[in-house]
Amino acid sequence: MLNLLAVWIVNALALLALPYVVPTIQIAGFGTALLVAIVLGLINTLLRPLLILLTLPATLLTLGLFIFVINALLFMLAGNLIGGFHVGGFWPALLGSIGYSLISWLLSAILLRK
C-alpha cells in the first residue's frame, strides 16, 4: 500500500515537471497533479487495453507506432476531463505522454530504489 502511494506521488511530480518540457501543457498545482495521476492511471487501466484491442490492425500495420497515438489521445482525454490541466493539442499531447512516461520512469528509478 505504501508503494502505491509512493508511485502516485512520483507520477504527480512527473506531471508537475511536464510543463517545463512541453510549454503548451499547463497544470494548476500539486493537488491537480495528484488528481490527474489518478485519472491517467484509471484511463490507462480501463480504456487503453480496449483501445489497443480495437485498433490492433492499425497497430500491426504501423509496427506498433499507433500505440503512441492512443497514448496521446488518452492524455488529451485526461486534459479534457480535469479542470486545471490543459493540453494544447495533439502534438503537445504526444510529446507530453512520452515526456510523462520518461520523467516518471526516471523519478521512479531514482526515488523508489529497493
How would you summarize this macromolecular structure in one to three sentences?
The chain is mainly alpha-helical.
Placed side by side, the strands forming the largest sheet appear as 1-2
Low-pLDDT windows of residues: none
SSE order, one letter for each helix or strand = HEHHHHEH
Strand content: 5-15%
Distance between the termini: 15 Å
Give the helices and strands, then pairings.
Blueprint: H1 2-21, E1 25-27, H2 30-46, H3 48-54, H4 56-61, H5 66-81, E2 85-87, H6 90-111
Antiparallel strand pairs: 1-2
Helix pairs in contact: 1-2, 1-6, 2-5, 5-6
Characterization of the model:
By secondary structure, the chain is mostly helical. It is built from six helices and two strands; from the N terminus they run H-E-H-H-H-H-E-H. It has a two-stranded antiparallel sheet with strand order 1-2. Helix 1 crosses helix 2 (30-46) and helix 1 (2-21) packs across helix 6 (90-111). The model has no long low-confidence stretch (mean pLDDT 94).
